[in-house]
Amino acid sequence: MKKARVQDTTFQVLDAADAKERAMWMEVWSSWPRRDVFAHPEYVRLYECEHEKAFAAVYKTESGTILYPFLRRYLGALEWVPREMASWSDITSPYGYGGAYYWGDDNSKVEVSAGFWEAYDRWAKRENCISEFIRFHLFEQDLASCPAEKVFRNKNIVRTLALSEDDLWMNFKHKVRKNVKKSQQAGLECLIDEDGRYLSDFLSLYKSTMDRRDAADFYYFNREYFEAVFDRLPTNSAYFYVLDGHEIISTELVLYSPETVYSFLGGTREEAFDKRPNDLLKYKVMLWAKEHGISNYVLGGGYMPEDGIYRYKKSFAPNGEYGFFTGQRINDAEGYKRLVDTRIDSLNGTWQSREGYFPQYRS
Question: In this structure, are 162 and 119 located in the same domain?
Answer without folding.
Answer: no
